[in-house]
Amino acid sequence: MITAIPAVHQVRSGEIVSRFIPDYNLAATLDSGQTFSWSRAEDGRWCGWVGETPCVAWQEGGRFFVQGRGLTEEAAAHYFQWNLAWPETLASFPQDEWIARARAHAPGLRLLRQDPWETLAGFICSSVKQIVQIQQINAELRRRFGREAAPGWWTFPSAGGLAAAAEADLRACRLGFRARHLHRAARQIVDGEVCLEKIGLLPTEAARAELLRLAGVGEKIADCVLLFAYGRGEVFPVDVWVERILRRLYFPGRRGVAVQRLRRFARTHFGPSGGHVQQFLFHWIRTAPEAETLRKTERKAKKPARSGR
DNA sequence: TGGCAGGGGTTGA
DNA sequence: TCAACCCCTGCC
Prior knowledge:
Oligomer: single chain
Largest sheet: 5 strands, antiparallel
Distance between the termini: 31 Å
Number of strands: 7
Strand order of the largest sheet: 1-5-4-3-2
């Protein structure tokens, strides 16, 4: 089986950058479904990528360390969002019981600032897939189409690299029907039909409209890219788990509330840092012991349709 | 052990 | 609005 864990020792001779950030929860951040490029190694440290630099990251005594050959503090600070005004971000959250529970479950859960193409491609691969499977697809795409930056470490393939590949070769990475979407999206970017750099300069609504022009990109994936790659912290992606939370916690006893209604509610209710709130709620319902009952109830109550909508 | 339902979504009719 | 799309996992 392909795993996302490369050879740790290959980067242990690189530069180490660090900063004292006691209120950063690295494990929750890397394990909360916003990135598919990091894995926990046997020694508890995290192996992954800051851009095209293979890195190892860990925390000790409130200090955050990242090691990688050629890694700069600027690059680490940008990717891990070290400079975000965290207390101010938290202060902008609405006060309610569920957000308080989610925050208490994983204090210091942050958002990353990832590469737009890698994030986009990763989420196109994610539809109706579980996180472990997405990580395997990510690793397979790297191994087949990436550049070997260090022994055992392959960069994420460029849009050009995937556009030039045969769709059948993408399917061989366990992509299934997603292969067609990813191939077409890569083609659209290579052809200049959609420009990821320009999207970064657009207001959020216009940026979302541009992303929605890409094959395999609907509202959920567009919102994930806006939040995790373009740093639009107000964007609140609504996937099936968050949809269940919103229905259960904010619209109890109300049947037939449309997803669009939930999205409108989320945009206004959760405020300017709604994306951060979403990440807390998402991580809480997936992993918190106290949410176990809610998870089971929702699975049973789920309608038999295959799409989860 | 094998069969089958279902999964972090989008597309196109 | 809903079936179809692939493949893998977990449950019975």
